[in-house]
Write a structure and sequence with these properties.
- With 595 residues, this protein is an alpha/beta fold.
- The protein contains 17 helices and 32 strands.
- A hairpin with a 2-residue loop joins strand 27 and strand 28 (510-516).
- The radius of gyration is 25 Å and the shape is elongated.
């Protein structure tokens, strides 16, 4: 469905000629959808109309009941017919399933196009990971628009990933016709401060005139203006309604994401106050965990929640269709009109958005909540054997120092981190974590650097009664372990190492839950239902070892704790890194105290 010729097939002269004939009534349609209510995303109207298709194209949208000549007639009575939903920024790997499994989950719900940044695979496997992503998307019912990862790693010099993409690698990727642009530019400080590497990456995008997507978390004022002036044109990292409005006024395309649900009500309120939906507001999922994907869906869930929070259904669908198509430079998508591609969804209503039938390029691909034809399997051999780590011991999760007491650096608060300091005792050469501290350890797993875990102290992370280990650790995806007891941390870490990657929870020295992700340490080859069940088991086990404090101390925070491109200190495989200052501490020990 995403073969290269699809970009051109609706412009074949013989197809256009036959569509003109069908629109005039000289020949019959291939498919006629009768009796439905079209959601007009241009005017915002809901109007009764029939839709005639010729091959992959809409040939006519006309008065209901005025035509009956068609090879196939579909009864759309009672349904609302909308363009297929377009997710403008997402990472399939975050759902911990393969692209084919992801397509099986979202296409039957009405999502027909996704813009995929495969930087998780890129950070683990380099160009081979991007190539695999491209190959895995070829025969899906889901249209996949692939971007070139720009953040491999996300904070060069402060962390080590499994590869390194500089200007040359980006230029080579962007020269490919199957790459639509540069994925989210996460090294914000590098862009703002004119780093040569980042300028070279952006220039590669500017010269190809392809998309240059952003990650502008926390940027405001002069920094935001500089970030955009460099050439970045979109953002999904919104933190407040004021942030949304500032970025709209600055001309960014907004990829309003569903992965931070606590912010959606204030976004809806701000847009409702504005009184209209800007053409630059699109929707995205960014990251969806497998149990959420299985239970609620993908972009359809974002649309549903926005409407539930008070957004007009027509606005939500405009953002998810025509606005997204304009952003992508795809005039064939996003509108129900003659001459456009026939990506259509028959929804039962405009509140639950339950999809009755789904068409992609004129072909019915899903009905009744399932794909009509399962996708073919993709060879995953290149994704295996990525855990290049030997088993660890409890000593690997300890901090060593001389004397009887030391001053240590701490990483304070989840998500919006800041530097802190604390006094810690030293017993038999081992630093005793401060009473309110949680240990975090990151071990390089890609075989390109010293794999000894770097250990730090977190504060504001609650009282842990066990440990959690994960190789899904944005964005370098090294092995990251949280806990208080080094024995528990070693147990969880070794379970993940033995599984070839994944997630594990341990307490009392025993593994309580394990989800193996042997494909790049990120993804399972099982179906969504099975992975969702395993992930739900991890969630349940985590609820038993830590008391969450939303909205910041949540399970999701564990996967972004090493995201070194964001402002503030973060633990990486090289030490405690702060991209704002360029500071890197190999050990949290700052000084030995007298006594």
């Amino acid at each position: 469905m995403t073969r290269p010729f699809e970009l051109f097939d609706i412009n074949l002269p013989e197809l256009r000629h036959r569509a003109v004939q069908a629109a005039r009534g000289d020949v019959a349609f291939d498919v006629l959808l009768r009796g439905g209510t079209v959601v007009d995303v241009v005017t915002g109207e809901l109007r009764l109309a029939d839709i005639g298709l010729v091959g992959p194209m809409i040939a006519s949208v006309h008065a209901p009941g005025s035509r009956a000549d068609s090879a196939t007639i579909i009864n759309a009575s009672g349904a609302f017919i909308a363009p297929g939903l377009i997710d403008t920024h997402m990472h399939i790997e975050s759902s911990m399933v393969t692209p084919s499994a992801y397509a099986q989950a979202v296409v039957p719900r009405g999502v027909t196009t996704v813009v995929w940044d495969p930087h998780e695979f890129g950070n683990v496997l380099g160009i081979a990971g991007v190539n695999w992503a491209a190959d895995a998307a070829i025969d899906l019912a889901l249209r996949v628009i692939l971007l070139a990862p720009s953040s491999v790693p996300s904070a060069p010099g402060l962390e080590m990933a499994g590869a390194d993409f500089g200007p040359q690698e980006l230029a080579e990727l962007l020269a490919r016709p199957d790459i639509a642009g540069i994925a989210e530019m996460m090294n914000m400080r590098g862009i703002i401060e004119g780093d040569a590497r980042m300028e070279g990456i952006i220039q590669a995008g500017l010269e190809t005139q392809k998309l240059i997507c952003g990650h502008a978390r926390g940027l405001s004022g002069a920094d935001l203006q500089a970030f955009i002036a460099a050439g970045v044109t979109s953002d999904h990292e919104l933190v407040s309604a004021d942030d949304l409005m500032e970025k709209l006024r600055a001309g960014l395309t907004i990829e309003l994401r569903g992965s931070h649900d606590h912010l959606l009500p204030e976004f809806v309120e701000a847009l409702n106050r504005l009184g209209h939906l800007p053409q630059t507001v699109t929707l995205c999922t960014d990251d969806v965990f497998p149990d959420d994907l299985y239970a609620a869906g993908g972009l359809d869930d974002v649309v549903r929640r926005l409407v539930g929070y008070g957004m007009r259904p027509e606005w939500a669908l405009q953002a998810a269709t025509i606005n997204a198509a304009r952003r992508l430079g795809r005039p064939d998508l996003g509108v129900i009109a003659p001459g456009r591609r026939a990506d259509l969804v028959l929804f039962e209503d405009l509140s639950s958005f339950e999809a009755r039938r789904v068409f992609v390029s004129g072909r019915e691909v899903a009905a009744g909540g399932a794909l009509l034809s399962p996708p073919s399997a993709t060879d995953t051999l290149v994704l295996t054997e990525t855990m290049k780590l030997e088993p660890l011991t409890s000593a690997d999760f300890q901090v060593f120092a001389g004397g009887s007491a030391v001053q240590v650096a701490t990483i304070d608060r989840p998500r919006f981190t800041q530097w802190g300091e604390a006094t810690a005792e030293v017993v038999d050469g081992v630093v005793v974590p401060p009473p309110d501290a949680t240990l975090i350890a990151v071990a390089h797993r890609h075989g390109l650097a010293d794999a000894r875990p770097r250990v730090g102290f977190l504060t504001g992370w609650g009282e842990w009664r066990g440990a959690f280990a994960t190789t899904v650790s944005h964005d370098s995806h090294n092995l990251t372990v949280f806990g208080r007891d080094p024995e528990d941390m070693a147990a969880a870490a070794n379970a993940v190492i033995a599984a070839g990657g994944g997630l594990a929870v341990a307490a009392g020295g025993e593994v309580k839950a394990l989800l193996a992700l042997p494909l790049a340490g990120l993804v399972s080859d099982m179906g969504v239902a099975e992975v969702a069940q395993g992930f739900a088991g991890i969630r349940e086990a985590m609820d038993g070892i830590i008391d969450w404090q939303p909205p910041y101390l949540v399970f999701k925070a564990c996967f972004g704790a090493t995201l070194a491109c964001n402002a503030g200190p973060h633990q990486t495989d090289r030490g405690i890194a702060d991209v704002s200052t360029g500071q890197l501490l190999e050990t949290p020990v700052l000084s030995k105290l007298a006594g």
